Amino acid sequence: MSSFRKDDAGKIHILFTSQESHVLINLVEQLIELLGGESVLQSHSSEVWGHDDDPLLRLLGVTGSDAPPDDPVLRRLLPNAYADEQSAGEFRRYTEDSLRQKKRAHAMAIYEALIPQDEEWSADKPLDRGSIEVSLEQTEIMVWLGGLNDLRLALAVRLGIGENAPNIKEEHQKYELMKESDPMKAVYAVYSWLGWLQQSLLDQIL
After folding, report:
1. What are the residue ranges spanned by the domains of the chain?
2. pTM of the model
3. CA-based Rg of the chain, rounded to a whole angstrom?
4. How far is Cα 71 from Cα 31, in angstroms, rounded to an integer?
5. 98-104 contacts: CB < 8 A, separation 24 or more?
6. How does pLDDT run across 154-193, given as a tens digit for each residue?
7. Given its phi and psi angles, is residue 77 left (phi above 0), alpha (psi -120 to 50 degrees) or beta?
8. Strand, coil or helix: what is 12?
9. Could you report the per-residue pLDDT of 92-141, keeping only the tens digit for each?
10. Counting Cβ atoms within 10 Å, is residue 164 exposed (0-12), middle (13-18) or buried (19+)?
């Protein structure tokens, strides 16, 4: 299993296998599209501003909606800042778009680091190389930590992990004891792997 390491010069590296890169790229693409960004495979317009697209509000980064997203993953990634519904809605209206942009930028940074510039990417086949090395500058470390965390949160929602804090241990045990043939076992394996990547990166900076 790949992990981050620090060289003698203090720079952080990781060597991903082709399969690991393929999984991570696919997850990042899905996250970018979920957050309202353009598909990196096929550009398409995305409705970010709601039905009333006011140019001034767009310039100021104010979205047209103060309601939480319908998608449960987006609700976890873009949570209410306040318990009070009115205060939460007003805060969301002024901050959600910038938060979406930040999370998309983190995801794109991971994507661009994994896609060789001289190779055409296809989701239907693995990358045409045995491994891909990624080197992180100091400014990229927090970007990767944020992006990996968002991917892990997204999978946690799909797995139903973390929704009931007192039972989180039981939630993990359910998947650990699950039969290997169950498709959700594979999803949980990726979720655990993302946690491993996060921790290995944190270990290099703490």
Report:
1. 5-205
2. 0.80
3. 19
4. 12
5. 98/61, 100/35, 100/36, 100/48, 102/146, 103/31, 103/35, 103/77, 103/146, 103/147, 103/150, 104/32, 104/35, 104/36, 104/37
6. 999 999 997 665 678 888 889 999 999 999 999 999 999 9
7. alpha
8. strand
9. 777 888 899 999 999 999 999 998 665 555 555 555 567 899 999 989 99
10. exposed
Q: Single out the residue of 140, 154, 131, 137 nearest to residue 110, CA to CA.
A: 140
Specify the amino acid at residue 142. Answer: M
Q: At what angle do helices 138-159 and 183-205 cross, to 10 degrees?
A: 150
Nearest to 27 by CA among 156, 177, 118, 200: 156
Handedness of CA 17, 18, 23, 25 (dihedral sign): positive
Residue 69 vs residues 76, 92, 146, 152, 191: alpha-carbon distances, Å: 9, 10, 20, 19, 23
Of 93, 89, 107, the residue nearest 34 (C-alpha): 107
Whether 13 contacts 7, CB under 8 Å: yes
**Spatial separation of the C-alpha atoms in residues 169 and 100, rounded to whole Å:** 30
- β-pairing, 131-136 vs 5-6, is unpaired
- Type of residue numbered 44: H
Q: Alpha-carbon torsion 169, 174, 177, 181, what sign?
A: negative
How many CA atoms, within 13 angstroms, populate the side-chain half-sphere of residue 195?
11
What does the DSSP 8-state code read for residue 68?
P
